[in-house]
Amino acid sequence: MAQSKTTLQGVYTNVKALLALRFEARGFSFHPRQLMQNPMHGRYAARLRGRGLNFEELRQYQMGDDIRTIDWKVTNRMRKPFVRSYTEEKERAALLLVDQRTPMFFGSQRQMKSVTAAECAALIAWRMVGAGDRVGGIVFGDEALQEYKPHHLQSTLVAFLRGIEKSNAALSLSSRAPSPRPLANVLQVAGRLATHDQLIVLITDLSGWDAQSYKRVTRLAQHNDLVVCHVVDPLEKQLPSQGQMPVSDGKLQIELDASKSKLRQDFTHSFETWAQSIYQSLSKHGISCVPISTAQDVAPQLRQAFGPRQSKR
Q: pLDDT, tens digit, for every residue of 98-117?
């Protein structure tokens, strides 16, 4: 009897598996000013703003108040110094953009990139809800796109995970769209959903990255914290030295002689140059790109990237 998609471990995921990740969502956080560590390509760092501030009251200046909080318009009108006081928001909104396009339906070790992305989104979502924050997101495939407004209710989170399951189950090499949905299109939708001081996490293999994607992602980062979880399969970085290899995009096929060291070196150099170029350009805007490998458990990788920093002695 053929296996159903829900039992093909590593190829597809399901809501039961994503719900179970709740117990693995620990050891990392997105606290204010949390410094993210990038284990690849130069350790580019970015600091998170954390929760935003809500205006609480306008009151008369008192000794010890920060002069930067003085409201000069009111002060001039009342002829007495007045300050604006703020309180930190009790909860923060997170928007997770989860890539489930056909290029993600690939994996040479352990599991598909699409499954890794699904697990990464589930772990971050559970961690944010556990911290009392609101979670929503966008799950996008080649054609379908599902939007979920941020909310703190677990029922909303479960609906979000079911949306990931649905999009993941639709992946199939035999039913691929003419071309994947452009990343720039997804980022445009995110720009409509996002407000200010939100955490936006783009979980993708960066397939289809272009100038328009760069423009829109940096625009989002102007008023929000933005992190890119770059899902990477080992075979994308390094070819095995096993001689002739058939390579296909689903339509065309060629033979590569992977026993040639020059070919393998050029292949690795090409990927690293491409990835580092994106990482460096985004780092200039305070955006950190964190590689997430399909060959390893996702939770430990998130702990390494977003866990507490070791103090220097």
A: 999 999 999 998 999 999 99
